[in-house]
Amino acid sequence: MFGSLFLHALAVCGGNPDAKRLYDDLLSNYNKLVRPVVNVTDALTVKIKLKLSQLIDVNLKNQIMTTNLWVEQTWYDYKLKWEPKEYGGVEMLHVPSDHIWRPDIVLYNNADGNFEVTLATKATLNYTGRVEWRPPAIYKSSCEIDVEYFPFDEQTCVMKFGSWTYDGFQVDLRHIDEMNDTNVVEVGVDLSEFYTSVEWDILEVPAVRNEKFYTCCDEPYLDITFNITMRRKTLFYTVNLIIPCMGISFLTILVFYLPSDSGEKVSLSISILLSLTVFFLLLAEIIPPTSLVVPLLGKFVLFTMILDTFR
């Protein structure tokens, strides 16, 4: 155990003897399985925040949102304090995160089975005992999609994070930007390095801290819910779906102006009906297979098909 710590110390500290000695002193007898509190009844405050890097995909059919983000986490570990003057002025140290205690923060509404952060990046230790950990992750989260106004729709997808093991009396989960013990943060997700999506515009990103009590237990269970509200960019669908559909619908009206004995009337009506059928099938492939609501665009196409059938 000590030998592996020594090797990591050489890698992390880059040959700095003061940093190496600090690394050994902090972690040689450190137990990463024990929650870092002085008294077992104390709650350890853990603060988190999301930094959204990319909105990879919003799958309407499967109702899954895929995001690339950083899960910023910070807490205080009293066992990782030191006096900088005793270690050559070293005030900060980078250590492998799997060598220290970490809060088991997971995404509750995960849609692919990977609930936890899979990449154990290094954590930053401050001489005050403050620990900062910013692992990157790609999450697939379940999202309820409302397609009534497709493609002119707005969607709100939630990402609910919380501790998998600890209750609210053991880990007090809060947002990093929370002020005056409020449970709502208006800008809960950092978008400073967000890569602009080609399909969606991000409108709002509030975060809410929730406390839940269950009938089985007296202690509360905490989570931070991030609400990502986005609006679809409609140019693609307008050019490739709306305008052709409206053009074909306009031709349906023109059919009524053709003489009843005209042979072109039947052939034109059949062509329009087949075109509308193709658009209807295309729309059915895009939207999720739900019976809760039918998009207004789908109702319009269906009405036009019926009108063309009983011309």
Automatic annotation (TrEMBL):
It holds the Pfam family Neur_chan_memb. InterPro entries: Neur_chan_lig-bd, Neur_chan_lig-bd_sf, Neur_channel, Neuro-gated_channel_TM_sf, Neuro_actylchol_rec, Neurotrans-gated_channel_TM, Neurotransmitter_ion_chnl_CS, Nicotinic_acetylcholine_rcpt. Its main location: membrane. One of its GO terms (cellular component) is postsynaptic membrane. It is found in: Postsynaptic cell membrane. Residues 20-234 form the Neurotransmitter-gated ion-channel ligand-binding domain. It comes from the Eukaryota. One of its GO terms (molecular function) is acetylcholine-gated monoatomic cation-selective channel activity. SUPFAM superfamilies: Neurotransmitter-gated ion-channel transmembrane pore, Nicotinic receptor ligand binding domain-like. CDD domains: LGIC_ECD_nAChR_proto_alpha-like (cd19031), LGIC_TM_nAChR (cd19064). Keywords: Cell membrane, Disulfide bond, Glycoprotein, Ion channel, Ion transport, Ligand-gated ion channel, Membrane, Postsynaptic cell membrane, Receptor, Synapse, Transmembrane, Transmembrane helix, Transport. Residues 241-309 form the Neurotransmitter-gated ion-channel transmembrane domain. The chain crosses the membrane at residues 235-259, 266-286. It is a multi-pass membrane protein. Belongs to the ligand-gated ion channel (TC 1.A.9) family. Acetylcholine receptor (TC 1.A.9.1) subfamily. After binding acetylcholine, the AChR responds by an extensive change in conformation that affects all subunits and leads to opening of an ion-conducting channel across the plasma membrane. This is Uncharacterized protein. It comes from Anopheles culicifacies.
